[in-house]
Write a sequence for this structure.
C-alpha cells in the first residue's frame, strides 16, 4: 500500500533527483581521468597504481553493504537516505582538494614537524586520500540507489535509473571536457588541482540540491520491529533468496564490471603511453621527464576528450535506452548495448589512431549508459519494501569485487608486459586491458541472455 501511495515523478522532479548523481559522477570522473598522472608523478608503477585503485572495490564491498543496511534502519526528521548522501559528499570534497596537493601537504607537514619524510610519503598520502574519497563516494552512492524504490513508483524505476544514467553521462562529459574546452577556446590549461576543486564543488552542491528537492517521509517517528543488528550473512542469504534470477544478475554484473573497469582504470595511461608514446615516468629522472611534459599534457587532454565523448553518448542514449527497455525488455536492450562496447574495446586494442579511438570510445558509451541503468532496473523487480539499502549494498559487491581482479591481476599482467623503446626507455602494453575487458563483456552478455525477468516468468 505504501508503494501504491508513491506519486509519479514529473520530468522536473526526475531532473532534481538526478542532480546529486551528476555531482557524484563529476567527482568520480575526475578521479578516473587524473589519478593516474598524479600518482605516476609521485612515483607509482603500473602495479602500484593498480593497488591504489583497490580503494574503490574494497570500500565498495565493505562500506556500501554496511551503509545500505544502516540507512534502512536510520530514523531522522530528514529521512533515512539523505544524511548519508550529504555527509558522503562533504567528506569527499575535502579528499578531492587534498589528493592533488599531496606533495605540497607532506612538504608542509615536514616543515612544521621538523621531520624529513621518506620520498614515498607523498605517494602514501595521495593513496590515503584516494581511499577516503572512494569510501565517502560509496557512503553516498549506496543510499542514493536505494532512494529510487523509496520514492519512485515501481513502474517508473527503469526511467528513474535512466535519469541516473543520464546524470552520470552529463556529469562525466562536463568533468572530462572542461579542461580541454578551456584550452581549445581560450588557450588556458586548467591546473590539475583546480580541476579537483571544481569536482569538490560539483559533488557537494549537486548533492545538496537533491537533498533539498527530494523529500523523504519523516522516519523519526516511524516505529519498526526491525531493531536487530546488521547481520551480513543473514542479509546475504535473504538477498539470494529473493529469486533464482538474482544470482544470474549478480554474475552478469561481476563480468560486466571486470570488462568496464579494464577501460576505466587504464584508459588514461593507455592514451599517454601507448597512443602518445610517453615512456614510464616512474623510472626516469626529473630532468628526463621534462622532455615529455608536452606529450603527457597532450595524452591527458586526449583522454579527457575521449571520456567526454564516451559520456556524451551515454548522456544522449540514456533516456532512449530506458524507453526501449520498457517496450522490449531490459535484458534484450542490455545485451545489445554491451556487445557494442565489446566491438569498441577490440578496435581500441589494435589501433593507436586518435580519431578512430575517439569514435570507438563514443560507441562504448552506449554500453555504459545501459550498465548504469538496466541491471539495477532488473534487480529492483525483486526487492522487498524496507530492504532497499541492504539489497543495493550487497549488489554493489558484484560491482566492487570484480575491480579487485582488475586492480591486482590485470595491473600485474600489464606490469610484466614490458616494452623497451628505441631510446632505451621502458613502456607497457596498456592495450591488453581492452582485450581482457572484451572477453569479460561477452561472458556477461551470455549470462544476461539466461536471465528471466518477471514479465517472462
Amino acid at each position: 500500500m505504501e508503494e501504491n501511495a508513491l506519486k509519479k515523478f514529473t520530468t522536473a522532479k526526475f531532473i532534481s533527483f538526478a542532480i546529486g548523481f551528476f555531482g557524484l559522477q563529476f567527482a568520480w570522473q575526475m578521479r578516473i581521468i587524473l589519478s593516474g598522472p598524479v600518482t605516476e608523478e609521485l612515483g607509482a608503477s603500473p602495479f602500484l597504481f593498480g593497488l591504489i585503485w583497490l580503494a574503490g572495490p574494497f570500500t565498495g564491498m565493505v562500506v556500501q553493504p554496511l551503509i545500505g543496511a544502516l540507512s534502512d534502519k536510520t530514523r531522522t526528521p530528514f529521512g533515512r537516505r539523505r544524511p548519508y548522501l550529504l555527509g558522503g559528499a562533504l567528506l569527499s570534497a575535502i579528499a578531492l582538494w587534498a589528493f592533488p596537493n599531496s606533495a605540497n601537504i607532506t612538504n608542509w607537514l615536514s616543515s612544521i614537524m621538523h621531520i624529513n619524510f621518506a620520498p614515498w610519503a607523498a605517494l602514501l598520502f595521495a593513496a590515503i586520500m584516494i581511499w577516503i574519497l572512494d569510501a565517502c563516494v560509496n557512503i553516498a552512492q549506496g543510499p542514493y540507489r536505494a532512494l529510487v524504490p523509496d520514492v519512485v513508483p515501481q513502474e517508473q524505476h527503469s526511467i528513474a535509473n535512466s535519469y541516473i544514467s543520464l546524470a552520470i553521462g552529463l556529469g562525466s562529459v562536463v568533468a572530462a571536457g572542461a579542461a580541454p574546452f578551456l584550452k581549445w577556446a581560450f588557450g588556458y590549461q586548467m591546473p590539475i588541482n583546480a580541476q579537483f576543486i571544481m569536482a569538490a564543488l560539483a559533488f557537494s552542491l549537486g548533492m545538496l540540491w537533491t537533498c533539498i528537492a527530494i523529500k523523504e517521509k519523516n522516519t523519526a517517528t516511524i516505529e519498526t520491529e526491525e531493531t536487530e543488528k546488521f547481520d551480513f550473512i543473514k542479509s546475504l542469504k535473504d538477498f539470494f533468496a529473493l529469486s533464482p534470477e538474482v544470482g544470474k544478475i549478480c554474475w552478469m554484473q561481476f563480468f560486466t564490471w571486470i570488462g568496464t573497469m579494464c577501460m576505466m582504470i587504464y584508459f588514461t595511461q593507455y592514451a599517454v603511453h601507448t597512443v602518445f608514446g610517453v615512456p614510464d615516468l616512474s623510472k626516469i629522472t626529473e630532468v628526463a621527464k621534462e622532455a615529455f611534459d608536452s606529450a603527457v599534457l597532450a595524452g591527458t587532454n586526449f583522454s579527457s576528450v575521449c571520456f567526454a565523448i564516451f559520456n556524451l553518448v551515454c548522456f544522449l542514449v540514456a533516456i532512449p535506452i530506458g524507453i526501449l527497455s520498457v517496450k522490449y525488455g531490459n535484458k534484450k536492450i542490455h545485451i545489445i548495448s554491451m556487445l557494442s562496447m565489446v566491438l569498441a574495446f577490440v578496435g581500441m586494442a589494435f589501433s593507436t589512431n586518435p580519431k578512430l579511438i575517439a569514435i570507438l570510445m563514443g560507441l562504448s558509451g552506449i554500453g555504459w549508459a545501459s550498465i548504469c541503468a538496466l541491471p539495477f532496473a532488473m534487480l529492483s523487480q525483486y526487492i522487498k519494501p524496507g530492504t532497499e539499502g541492504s539489497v543495493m549494498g550487497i549488489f554493489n559487491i558484484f560491482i566492487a569485487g570484480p575491480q579487485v581482479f582488475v586492480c591486482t591481476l590485470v595491473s600485474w599482467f600489464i606490469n610484466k608486459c614490458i616494452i623497451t623503446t628505441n631510446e632505451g626507455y621502458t613502456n607497457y602494453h596498456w592495450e591488453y586491458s581492452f582485450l581482457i575487458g572484451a572477453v569479460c563483456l561477452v561472458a556477461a552478455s551470455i549470462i544476461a541472455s539466461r536471465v528471466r525477468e518477471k514479465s517472462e516468468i
